[in-house]
Amino acid sequence: MGYTKEAIKGVSWLGAFRLFARVLSFLRTIIVARILSPAQFGVYGIAALALSLIEILTETGINVFLVQNKDNIGKYISTAWVVSIIRGILISFLIFSSSFFVAEFFKNPDTLALLMLVSVVPLIRGFINPSVAKFQKGLQFHKEFYYRSGIFLIETIAAIVLIVVMKNPIALIYSLIAGAIFEVIISLFLIKPMPIIEFNKKIFKKIISRGKWITGAGIFSYLFQNADNAVVGKMLGTGALGIYDMAYSISTLPLNEISDIVARVTFPVYVKMSDDKKRLRRAYVRTILLTVGMVSPILLLFLLFPEQLILLFLGENWIQAADVLRVLAIFAMFSVLGSPSGAVFYAVKKQKYLTVISIISFAVMIISIFPLINKFGIIGAGIAEILGSLAALPFMFFYLIKILR
Questions:
Q1: C-alpha–C-alpha distance, residues 235 and 226, integer Å
Q2: What is the tens place of the pLDDT at every residue in 101-111?
Q3: Angle at the Cα of 136 from the Cα atoms of 132 and 140, rounded to 5 degrees
């Protein structure tokens, strides 16, 4: 049985969600940029940075584990839910207890309140029903469209209303809390099977054993993508961080959105054909050609017309982001070559390859970023990202050849 038809349907449904989500996200970004200053946006960026870092550090790989298994996932759900709840409590505690240190590190007391409040978000998310993974596993992307669209709509409406009323970056944290509460409710009451508090030691060991490489890959991938923000914030201040973070978000938006759609669709498809290397190789080649073809024209616009785009959509307050946007567009162009490989590695249960690739990217970036920032400012941070991405490509292609030959 061929999976091309299912893949096309999946890309269509998730593409529709991404289009819907990005239109709302773009509207939200424009409103936030008009109301908040770069420094205020940078304060929110620090809180978001801390949240995503702790989530990556404690990643168990539950969803990947559930999709990788070819048998029914029902017997794993309750144990996976208990693991998810424990992880949420741990993340919440770590963010709250480290909030004073983080605020002191960035020399910005305004971040303290945001960090303490954002610690509530993972506590709530921990109760999300792991059964949502069956949408991806079963190629039921139409159901995932409705599920994720509803959550994003609630979060976006809350963000826009609260930021207009409060004119404070803490409004964005409240919108995350609203979205998390809504997701927990609909996942528990509308998606079956519903988990119960039940712990199976054998299943727990399976999840942790396979998830350790996902954790490792996630940590170093996160550090590669976000350590530059921490360095920019520390060396150049929250104003520069706000500008750099905005440029990074814009430049990687098409890559992240398109590659995420493709990865979510191809991962379960690759799992089903993982025993047929010829078929898997053919599917991968088609995927990378499709991804490059879709992303490259958008990145070319960022490379050639950054000033015009910044003025048109964000206003004069953000014009300093134009030069770094051009550099980060180059970084995104190199990143798109490696983005489709993750689904292949996960499908054949070679998460350790992703860990190695992520370590190389991070090591090259972090070694080069300090002298480059000293010499070129925030543009130097973008150059360091390019160098890290380039360094990892030979290793990525080596592992792909090893798997697909």
A1: 15
A2: 877 777 767 77
A3: 95
Q: Which of 5, 106, 3 is nearest to 47 (CA)?
A: 106
The residues of the chain scoring below 70 in pLDDT are: 1-4, 41, 53-61, 69-71, 108, 209-211
Q: Which residues are within 8 A (CB) of 247 and not within 5 positions of it... i.e. 6 or more apart?
A: 321, 322, 324, 325, 328, 378, 382
Task: Give me 368's structure tokens.
Answer: 């080069």
Q: How many CB atoms lie within 10 A of CB 315?
A: 12
Task: For the chain, give the number of residues.
Answer: 405
| Beta strands, E only, 27-85 | none
Contact call for residues 122 and 54 (beta carbons, < 8 A): yes
> Is 0.85 surpassed by the pTM of this model?
no
Residue 112 C-alpha from the chain's centroid: 24
CA-CA distances (angstroms) from residue 226 to 61, 341, 392?
20, 21, 17
DSSP structural state of residue 317: G
The two three-digit tokens of residue 118, written as one number = 């954002």
